[in-house]
Each structure stands twice: as structure tokens, then as C-alpha cells.
């Protein structure tokens, strides 16, 4: 087997240890010569795969509400089969939308914002804007009011595209928006738009179908962009302060697309991709760009409808994955961890023969996966897959062959879980909004855990020494330092923020752009990158010990009681503390077995014996993962309520927002040090 990996390379800019992908001696810039922008690529792909299914959405059969024992109402959906539009049909809709947008009154030199959950119309609107060289501002549907107003006003958006259910949110901030003139909404079955049309009457309001009809009746010639034109201003879900708008060019998008196309094995028009992550996030936009470039079918879903047991799926009906039966999907580590934890808990609950058989089969398959790759196949694999793992795989359709994982480090346990229980290859990706997700990507045959692979063929990755933190490119046995990404995927900088742009973006003597990530990495001998730290997460304690907060959090997240965790270190003390969102099921199960009486879950979290139990479990995991004493939280605060993107305490990729958490739980942190 050919081991591609990465090889050292001489590059310009600041001195460091640089590596390129071994597949290509020159950086890849576009999937093919005639596709310098996403508008060109999209048109050519739709022409090539004209009759192939492209975008699929499940038909809503019925919506109902159920009432829980405590009186709360929950929406449940009964969904039908996927209904598909072909590449040719979607291209017609995109062309009509592009024309209708201008006929509605949108000026081609002003910006459009898309404020919506992921759905087929999101991609149609995006490509429609690209067809007229209109820059799109992407905004998370979960963004708070202040950040939403800031993003729309800063980019002087004149047309806002949103879901009808978000019109209420829009109405509440209408008086604070300075540039919006047009609102286009995605129709759905709730008819929420009728309730707000009057109060939004000072804007031009139209549905997507009305805009498409307008464009079909009065077509406008396309105005295709160039590779250096700004395609998207993507607001990061960053963990500190107000969001920053990253200016992404068409060249950035096609470069990452071209690079990933060379990495995923046997990628083609026979594949089916499940789309459910936010399209406003760089990971999902990059993934869907790759899928449309190779003619894949894209079926839309959501976290709330993904599986048969998802919260919005009516009991007794099928979740999206069971109907779509995808061969490809993307996931962030938090979602993979939830899938793994859910399976393990179900197995533990069944106990007896089922539990013993699962663990025996898992260890047999895990040994094969860790050993010879060829040993992972054969008759024994067929037996265990049929007897033990088939039901687990059927939960996401039974056909998954490849999972793209990014957004944060993936634990080795979760990676092996996907390999064994799902029977799928997992490709770990490393990238940032500032590099349009294009930095590193693991090879399909790489079974080592904790690594993100070699640089993508569109990028170089350089390590630059960070002497203050003790990470040097001269370190043995592997060079270490701050990760700096250079190449065609590196974006144009931050919108209206030249100071910050100059701080982290550099142009070398050859004209190549480099982005200083703030992440710390090390290169293995085969040219594969491992993320080992982050500059902003390192705190120096009272006696000089360094604590890497992210490293500790990653280690402790494997504790059964931990649903989420933020470690905090005050430099005036010699120990760290932690805020722990506890797992409801695990803690209630312990309380029942231990005979701990409590009024409710909050009461249970505050009991001294509960805190002692969780702290002991955390300390056990810490020692097993070889954390030193200064890295193990000496005190903890247990929190009963989960951290969600809606609460503003985690990003849409489910990474913690450290500054927001510190502000919200300031008093609790002070008490832990009292």
C-alpha cells in the first residue's frame, strides 16, 4: 500500500518546519481548469450530472404535539420519503432565483445574508447569489439578537433570506437594522409568515418561490465572478467576543474542494450524503461543495430528526438516516461521542448475554482494526457484523462507508467505535474558517488515532517555534510549534478589521498568504499532523506549572459522568477547578444504586456526596490518561442544565465558549477558590 503522508518542503515567510502533501509536488488550485469559481463549478457539475438526483427533502405527513408528565409540550413529526430534484432541475431553480433576486430590487453590488437552518433552499439561494457575483453573509440560525444585528449592520446587508419561523426574531430587531430593504423567506408548513407580514411592511417581502417565478418570467444574464472575488463573509462562531466576518474568495472554496476530492476514496455520483450540520459553518459548506462537484445526492436532515430515536421523530416512525441510507456523512466529535455513548448505554441496560457478546465482539474487531488493516476484513468480520453490529449500523441506514469528522479533536475511543460498530472509515479533518476548512486531512488507511493527517494538497503547513510556551521546531523526537497554514485555501482576512487581519495573516516574499492559527501541533515522521495544544488555553499556575485547559478537558470528557466540562485555572493558585455539566442518566443511575434521595436533578447535583462521587470518577480518568497533579481539578461545580448553541455557551460546532462561560459562572468559580 502506498503511504502518501506528507514530506518536508522549502517555503517562504517566517522560519519554521514546513510540510506538503506527498500526493502533489505543486499545490492544487481548482478541481479542473475550467472551474476557477464556485459559480463555474456548479454550472459545469449540473450539466455533467443533469439527470442525477441532487437535493432531497423528506415530505411532512403530519405534525403533532405530545405532553410530558411535567406538562411540557413537545413537537413530533411524521415524515415520509425523500423527494428529489435532479441536478438539472436545481440548476434551473438557481438560475431563476439569481434573476429574481435582481428583479426584486436587490443591487448586485450589495450583500445578501442567509439566516436559516440547513435545507435545500439554503444551497439554492447561495448558488443563485454566486451566479450574479453577489457576496453572501452567512449567519447561524441560533445567533443571539445583538450578534445578529451587529453582523447585518457591519456588512450593510440589503437583502436578508431566512426561514419563515425566524421572521418573529427579525421583527423584534427591525428598528435596529440600518440597511435591510428586502426579506425573502423559505416557505414551510407552519404559515408563520402570515402573522408577521404586516409588521414587516416597510420592507419588500417575498417567498423563495415568488422570487423564482419572477426570475423565470424575466431572466437576467448571469454575471459570473472571478477567483479573487469575495464569495462569502462567514461569521465565525468564535469562543470570544463579537463574531468576526471572514472574507472567503471563490478561489478559496474551489481549492479546498479540489483537494478533498483527491482524499476521499471512490468518491462519486453513486454516493449519498446526509446534510444536517449548519451550512453557515465552514465544515458543512466545504463538505457540500465537494459533494456537488462529484455529483453526489445530498439528503437534508437535522440533529432533531436524524435517527428513529431523535427528539422530533414520532414514535414508531423512521428517522432521516433510516430512510436516506447515506454512504457519507460529516460529524463533529461531540455528535460522534453522543452516538457512541447512546449505543454503550443501551448495551449496558440490556446486560447479560447481549452485553457480554457485544464486548467480546467489539474487542475482537478492535484488535483486528488496530493490527493489520487486512485483518479487519474476512469471515470473522462478516460473522460479527451480522450477529452484533448490524442493528447499530441500521440506526443510520446501514450503508455508511465514510465519515468526515472535524471541528475539534476526536478521541481514539470514538474513532475506533466508528471503525468497529459502524464499519466505516473515519477521515479526520483539520481546518478553520480562515482557511475555508482546508488545512489537513487524514488518509483513509491511517489507523493511528489522535492525528489529523498530512496537509491537504491545496495547502502547506508550517510549524513555527513558540519559545514562551516551550514548543520548538528543534524538539525531539518530533518538531513542535504554532501551526501556520499557507496556500490557496487561506482567506482574504477579516471584514472591516484590518488590525486583526494584519495580526494573524501574513504574505511572504513569494506572495503566498499564511494564517497563524494559534493552535500548537507536532509533525510525526510520516508528515502527519497532531494537534497538541492551543496558545490561548495555556495558563501558568502560582508555582510555575503550565496547565493546558483544552488538553485537560479533552481527557476528562471521557468520564461517564461528564456531559461537558470547562476547566479553569487562576494563576494566583497552584491548582485548577472545573465546571461540569453532568450526564443525567449516569448520575441518576448512580443515585438510585447508592440510595441517594433527592427532590430533583438540581438538588442531586448540589449534594456533597454527589460532588465527591463525580470528583473521584474524574480523578480516576485523569490518572488513567496520565494527567499530572496540577492538571487534575481539585474542586468542581456540578451543573444540571446542558450547554447549547442557543444558550450562547457553546459554538454551533459544540465547542465551549470559554469567556462566556467564565462570565456566566463567575460567582461559582470564585466560590471554588474561596
From TrEMBL:
- A Pfam match is AMP-binding
- Per the record's keyword annotation, is Ligase included, yes or no? yes
InterPro entries reported for this sequence: AMP-binding_CS, AMP-dep_synth/lig_dom, ANL_N_sf
Domain of life of the native organism: Eukaryota
* Molecular function via GO: long-chain fatty acid-CoA ligase activity
Positions of the AMP-dependent synthetase/ligase domain: 78-495
EC no.? 6.2.1.3
Glycoprotein keyword on record: no
Cellular component terms (Gene Ontology): endoplasmic reticulum; membrane
Q: Cite the entry's keywords alphabetically.
A: Ligase
- Its protein name is Long chain acyl-CoA synthetase 8
This protein's species is: Glycine soja
Taxonomic classification: Eukaryota, Viridiplantae, Streptophyta, Embryophyta, Tracheophyta
